[in-house]
Amino acid sequence: MEKVLQTLPDSLYERVRREDLLQNEVYVKLARDGWNNQEIVRIMDNYLQYRKSKVKGSHAYGMYAKQWLPTYGYTPGGDSIYQFVDTTFSEKAIASVRRLYSKSLDNYYPQIPYTPDDRLKGIRNTGYFRPVLQYPNTGRIHWIVADPLNADHIMVVPDGGGIFRTDNLGDTWDCVTDRIPDREFRKICTHSAIPVDPDDWNHFFAFMKSGNTTRVYETLDGGQNWTRIEGATHKSFKRGYGFKDKAGNLKFIGACQAGNYMYNELWTSADKGVHWDRITLPEELKETHPENGSKGAFFQNFAFNPQNRDMVYIPTSRSIYYFDDGVTKNENGGYNIKKMVFDVYDQDGTTLRAKAVSEFPFKATSQGFLEIDPAHPDTMWFASASRNVSYGVYSAVYKTTDGGKTWITLQEPLAKIGSGLAFGNESPWGWLGGFGVNFKNPQRLYGCSMSSAISTDGGKNFWEYAWGNRLKAKYLDGNYYTTTSSRHNADNHCIVSHPSGRVFRGSDSGVLMIDENINGHQWTNINGPMGNQLHYSIKVNEFGDQVMLGNTQDVDVQTYKYGRWENWRGYEGTEAFINPYGGTCYFSGSGGGGLDGIDFGSWRAGYTKADVCTGNWYLMHNQDAGSFFRVEDFGRTPINIQYSR
Fold this sequence. Notes:
Elements lengths: L1 H6 L10 H7 L1 H7 L4 H15 L7 H10 L22 H10 L1 H7 L8 H4 L20 E6 L7 E5 L5 E3 L7 E2 L12 E2 L6 E2 L2 E11 L2 E7 L7 E2 L10 E6 L5 E7 L8 E5 L7 E3 L7 E2 L6 E2 L6 E2 L7 E4 L4 E4 L14 E2 L2 E4 L6 E6 L11 E4 L7 E6 L9 E6 L5 E6 L22 E4 L7 E4 L3 E4 L7 E3 L4 E5 L5 E8 L4 E6 L5 E5 L2 E5 L9 E2 L9 E6 L6 E6 L4 E5 L2 E6 L5 E4 L6 E4 L20 E2 L6 E5 L5 E6 L4 E6 L3
Parallel strand pairs: 20-25, 30-35
Antiparallel strand pairs: 1-2, 2-3, 3-4, 5-7, 6-7, 7-8, 8-9, 10-11, 11-12, 12-13, 14-15, 16-17, 17-18, 18-19, 20-21, 22-23, 23-24, 24-25, 26-27, 27-28, 28-29, 30-31, 32-33, 33-34, 34-35, 36-37, 37-38, 38-39, 40-41, 42-43, 43-44, 44-45
């Protein structure tokens, strides 16, 4: 490959076309490294163009060239172009680039967000790349934390991104980890942890990762400034928390998945991640899987008593483990983890179902969830479900009002108590699932997995919020409109209950919220009118200022036209073709649609091209079989053209 690269003429590298930048996502790669739009364009069009002798002839230079020449089939992994110039990630070198072009940056590449206004007036804009205003940078939201004193203040962790923060319920968002001083540790906040000081919402930590290296950063001012905790590392927690014990000591605690879910690990740190201790579960406290007999515990979620900070609860599939000493080392250097013992009654509280047991009657196999009423911490709800077991998919929900001594069975359909599946269409597992309570109106309970469910009678009966229900989001005009990509059934990862009664949900469809006083008491998307932003691919009308189309995971196809996302159709795998002259989109793949009833299959968007002179498309179907189509009449007539590879 390297010899081939050296034989290519210099003329192939003379100028980088803007459309190639867009198609090959180099802007996105550099933006993820922390460069702004002006710097990216200046680097691409000037810095490398006139200084390519520094890297010319090297393998890195070939990789740079192949970014623009996909015909040769070489893409340098996750690397970004600037690394071939500044391989040390040197802030000093980066600053020199900024100084070199500081006088012209602001005027060279104006960052003007896309609007349809000029197009509707018949005005042709110059060919600069205009962004659509963004919100949290992916649709998949792994974790949410909320300010206990103000339900408009939340922080979220999107998949593959940093920590995003809003102080106005999603009207505006700020990626606060973009200010971390070490550029290479700004991007990835590992999975599901935002440790927050429970006494100070603006004091929190970022568990960041670059490659296999982890670092811990601390902010005291809401993410405006960050300091690295020297020597600190972190675990890639499925769930990670910050808390304080009664003595006021700030600690971290979390759960890691280690292969089989029954072997999950507990880790804690009392010095901000400089030292970590694994908490070993005594053999006599382990659960036994009802089918395969394996022993362990499905640790994942945690709950904290707001009035007794030494009480830390860890619900599992069918038990509740706890610490009553603030997770403090004992004299032997270990930790005093305990298992709750309780009685279980039927739904009306009159018949004793189980006495002095440490496991609930329902033999659940997925993770469990524990919700604690912040105003009355002796009132708690426990929810769990079965998954892939011989007796089928069921759920169970229990409630206590005496701190866990006795529990009422709200629903357990396998035992003919209550109805419905508390988590929607299936049980939670691995990366899916959540359970929440409206603390101001506890008749309303919520659960989610791949879909979601709701109870309006205090948890006795649940009904699934149907697959096709689409969410609304607040647009810039202050009104709520249906978003194209945001549905209830898009891999839900967590539910967070707030003392105000508001409930939040993190899913592949964004940050969702339900509040009795907002949007008719319906689930609302608050990470923007674009809804889901986890795009597998996106296309633009060749004129660049009328239609954009995105293909999202697990949800559907959507178009952005005349200032709004709309026109959903299809499902994951759907392909779309955009008329280069009009705003018409044609869909194929799963979910129906297609051109004249012909299904062109899925995931061929990268092979679709349009001729802006004739209005014809050229697209490849079934690449290995060598089938090639020309689509004429602005998308109405497909003609099969056979060719040989």
